[in-house]
Amino acid sequence: MIEHLQILVFILLVFSYFWLAFYIKQTYEIYHYKYLRELLKIVLVFLAFITMRFVRLYLVKNILNDFSVNLVNIIDIFRYFLSLWIIYLLINILLSFREKSFTKKQKTWIFLIVTLGFTLYIYGTYYLYDNNIFKWVENVLNSITGINFFIKIALLIGFCFFWDEKKTKENQKLSRYFSLLFIIAFGVSAILVSISQLYNEPISYKSVIFTSLRYSTFLFVIYIWIKYLFLPYALSLSKLVLQDTNLNYIYKKYNISEREKEIIELIIDGKSNNDIKESLFISYHTVKNHLSNIYKKLNVNNRHELVHLFIKLKDPISIN
Q: Phi/psi of residue 127, each to 5°?
């Protein structure tokens, strides 16, 4: 009965996270903010976590041979790796609020260091465990993954309260609520883990419930941030452009055609490519071609950059 409950919870969580990933992807297609793309990656990492968590619970309860024991060890290693990846993605999201990111050189060094560390860890664990060097590497990695909760909280608190004052208050608010919501989610998760450790059974009704609550917390936090914080922020930028910007001045400056004007105004209004296609009665391929020409003329790469370009190019002088 408990295993059936475990399977049902697993299916519900996987379905919910797939829905959330689709929701973020659809939002990203309209508003090309980098942190949405990175947030989508975090959701997929959590999905991998969920899968590994329930597989591990099943294996621990039904270990029959050495192969099963080795598989549990492999799952633990990948869970450690995913924990570090979440830290990396969180840093990338928080940097993107300041319109910054890791450089290619930094990404290369991070990849090489993490790869080397886990190679030494795996090789030392399975082949040369008696070697002091490999023991040291294993202890270091275990320490990092063991305190990853505190690392995440420290990062979120740091980015929440130490802001560049030159940035807009709206963007600061968006970043701070993101940090606060994730602090709450990690805090709730830590409390649930602590409570679940009071029970020694690898699989019980309580352990399954605690596991589902942990991952559901992150699901709700991410959805709340997008629905009630990010989308109003993005729509407010669009309204700001449409209300306060002299669009004709910009159209004239960049030689924008009549059809391109219509598409730009629909983009600023938050319409997707499919919405534009239906509004203007043109094909999806035609929409893509017009978008490509618009981006080329304005020297931007996506909708997010287009909206911010129009905000920067506000002309206070009305041109008749």
A: -125, -40
**Backbone phi, psi, residue 201, to 5°:** -70, 130
Among 270, 271, 236, 263, smallest CA distance to 247 is for 263
| Whether domain 245-312 has CATH 1.10.10.10 | yes
Q: Which amino acid is at 281?
A: F
CATH 1.20.1070 fits 2-237, yes or no: yes
Q: What is the pLDDT of residues 146-164, one digit of tens each?
A: 666 677 777 777 776 665 5
Two tokens at 222?
A: 């991410």
- Residue 290, classed as helix, strand or coil, is helix
Domain ranges of the chain: 2-237, 245-312
Q: What is the 3-state secondary structure (H, E, C) of 156-209?
A: HHHHHHCCCCCCCHHHHHHHHHHHHHHHHHHHHHHHHHHHHCCCCCCCCHHHHH
Q: What is the pLDDT of residues 99-140, one digit of tens each?
A: 677 888 888 888 888 787 777 766 666 655 555 655 666 666
CA-CA distance, 77 to 85, in Å (whole number)? 13
Q: How far apart are CA 12 and CA 285, in angstroms?
A: 36
d(CA 254, CA 170): 29
**Taking residues 65-79, what's their average pLDDT?**
72
Here the tokens at position 111 are: 């990849």
Q: How far apart are CA 211 and CA 225, in angstroms?
A: 22
Q: Chain-centre distance of CA 225, in angstroms?
A: 12
Compute the distance between CA of residue 270 and CA of residue 241 in angstroms, rounded to an integer. 12
Are the C-beta atoms of 119 and 81 separated by less than 8 Å?
Answer: no
Closest CA to 174 of 232, 231, 229, 218: 229
On the CB side of 47, CA atoms within 13 Å amount to 17
